[in-house]
């Protein structure tokens, strides 16, 4: 059975290994202590919303959203910065459930959108997001400094 919850500091031991694995997926050096400290700071300072998913009570995945604001829309947006499902639990619908949770957060907070980015080579993500209602915006340029 798949369940989910909004994470609290009490969930740190469940989230940190998943967050560390997520970073390793994106070619970062494994550092469980740093991953744990980062997540602890985000939760303690109320700087993000993290939804933690469980499969049969075992931590299976998470998504982390950060609030940002649109000056032109005069509203909040949610940046879905992180989405990760443990390899053992992929293909079970957990990512879709977490995306629906993100959409509900957007509606519940009267935000204007959920935005995200992923690598062009992320074949799974690039199939997942359109299948759950996200549209690829190709009329803007994304810059980074």
Which secondary structure elements does this structure contain, and how are they paired or packed?
Blueprint: E1 2-6, H1 12-25, H2 32-44, E2 49-55, E3 58-70, E4 75-85, H3 94-108, E5 113-115, H4 123-131
Parallel strand pairs: 4-5
Antiparallel strand pairs: 1-2, 2-3, 3-4
Number of strands: 5
Count of domain modules: 1
Uncertain runs are none
Order of helices and strands: EHHEEEHEH
Named CATH architecture: 3-Layer(aba) Sandwich
Describe this structure in words.
This protein has 145 residues and is α+β, with helices and mostly antiparallel strands. It has a single domain (2-131), classed as Gcn5-related N-acetyltransferase (GNAT) (Aminopeptidase). The chain has helices spanning 12-25, 32-44, 94-108, 123-131, and strands at residues 2-6, 49-55, 58-70, 75-85, 113-115. Strands 1-2-3-4-5 form a five-stranded mixed β-sheet, sandwiched between helices. α1 crosses α2. The mean pLDDT is 95.
List keywords for this structure.
single chain; 145 residues; Aminopeptidase
TL;DR?
The protein has helices spanning 12-25, 32-44, 94-108, 123-131; strands at 2-6, 49-55, 58-70, 75-85, 113-115. The chain has 145 residues and is an alpha+beta fold. The longest helix has 15 residues, at 94-108.
